[in-house]
Amino acid sequence: MAFDRTGGIPRRLVLGLRGGSGSQLLAGILGHNLCLDIFGGPSEEEAAAGLTVHGESSVAKYEIRGWDGGLDMRATLPLAGLEIERTIQLHGEAVKIRETVRNLCAFDRAIAWTEHVTLGPPFLEKGATEFRATATRSRNFEAPFGAHDYLPPGVDFDWPMAPMADGGSIDLRVFSRAPSSSAFTTHLMDPQCADACFAAFSPRFHLLFGYVWKQSDFPWLGIWEENLSRDFAPWNGRTIARGMEFGVSPMPETRRRMIDRGKLFGVPAYRWLPARGHGEVEYWALAQAADSIPERLEWPRE
């Protein structure tokens, strides 16, 4: 299910990936990428200082300790001034992930923190793979998103029917069947529900896959679509991928723009970490045989 991706990056930043701030990211990216402490591209000054697309956590060297049924991971991010710890534990058909991010700086700071999950073939099929999410208010990316973007920039809508640039609407619960397409939409997870989730289902493989998390931890879900659109390396017009990117920020953008945005739909676009303090999250991933897709996923039992 893993496939190379950068995920929801404006065209001007995508072009910079070729030998630029995203080259390290693309050299080894697969499946689930932690974006910290930016979601999107660095500023020109940050890139010159060595910061990469989606932050250091994507390319850092981790200390890994395995144990019966799980593993612990730890890395220090010197440019960001952060320390990340992640514990992954198997529970039958589900996996529990716990992450702790520590602020090594002596000042409060605003951070992006996004779990960038990407699906690709053979699980992902045009016009066939189904999706569900506890999404509500939504917005299209606020600028043209690639050569084959079919959504009008910055238009608000309610999940799952996204308005199209040429009129009509498209159901985001089924992956596009278009010859080529590219898009990014952001979705506020239902604030009336304690848990948030997305589910993906392959009718051909009778396989259900998804994640469950606390809405208060990650109120946003970004959906990135790359369907044979980017004709330059490393995609080369051959990539089909969908990113399901849940986090604290609605849009992939620079740190300055994230902070200037402040909120979307009245919900913060970043998370504060106190001086010398930390933040913790826990979420689950699951994969299981199924004949259909449920409307939502339940928090697994340990």
Can you summarize this structure?
The protein has helices at residues 11-15, 23-28, 44-48, 255-261; strands spanning 32-37, 63-67, 70-77, 82-91, 94-103, 109-119, 130-133, 135-140, 156-158, 161-163, 169-171, 181-189, 195-202, 207-214, 220-227, 240-247, 263-264, 267-268, 271-273, 278-289. With 302 residues, it is mainly β.
CA-to-CA gap between the ends? 25 Å
Helix tally equals: 4
Could you give a short account of the major beta sheet? 8 strands, antiparallel
Radius of gyration (Å): 18 Å
Order of helices and strands: HHEHEEEEEEEEEEEEEEEHEEEE
CATH fold call = Beta-galactosidase, Chain A, domain 5
- Count the domains: 1
Shape: globular
CATH class: Mainly Beta
Q: Number of DSSP strands?
A: 20
Residue ranges: pLDDT <50 for 5 or more in a row?
A: 1-18
Structural class: mainly beta
CATH structural architecture: Distorted Sandwich
Strand content: 35-45%
Mean pLDDT: 91
Helix content: under 10%
